[in-house]
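Title: [Solved] TetR family transcriptional regulator 3D structure

Original question kept below for reference.
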Amino acid sequence: MPGRKQFDVGAALDRAMRVFWQRGYADASLEALCSATGLGRGSLYGAFGGKDALFLQCLDRYASLYGAQYEQALAAHPGDPVRAVEAFFDVVLGRIADPSVPAGCLIAQSAAQSPTLKQENGLRVRGLLDVQRQRVRAALADSSADTRTLDELATYVVAVNQSLAVLSRAGASDAELRSVARLACTTVADTLARAASQDSVQG
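Solution (posted by the thread starter after getting help):
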């Protein structure tokens, strides 16, 4: 049929996402994106609207793919926020250890390059980090800790997650990364236990 796209849009997005993930936005040249997707420059622009628009779509695809896994892990242990955070890091470490995908995290990679991004793209990256923090914060809500403590813990967990991605790209071993995650979970558990103890004394 005239005008019908003769390629798999989802597959092309996945391949482009890997280029951004592996190289970062700044070093993901149009040539590399065209080579990965199998599209000429004109077809790439026609299908996705250019590099910046393609980058936004890749961010959304990445967030949809892994965000669903994070959300499922965090929601799988109602009433047990520490176990929820442990499950979250299990998913994160599983992605990092997966040899079929690039090292690190597309969002962490993009956040590190925020100064080179157009405003819209930078805001999207920040928004995705905020969504991640909101998911973690919701998993912590069953605790008796005060709002400020829970907000700070959620930000802390997201910061550790991003650090794991950076460390993995620098060549940290799985054992080293799991040690970081384990200590983070201990920090969360200790902070929540301390808050519960204080609440009990005050009560």
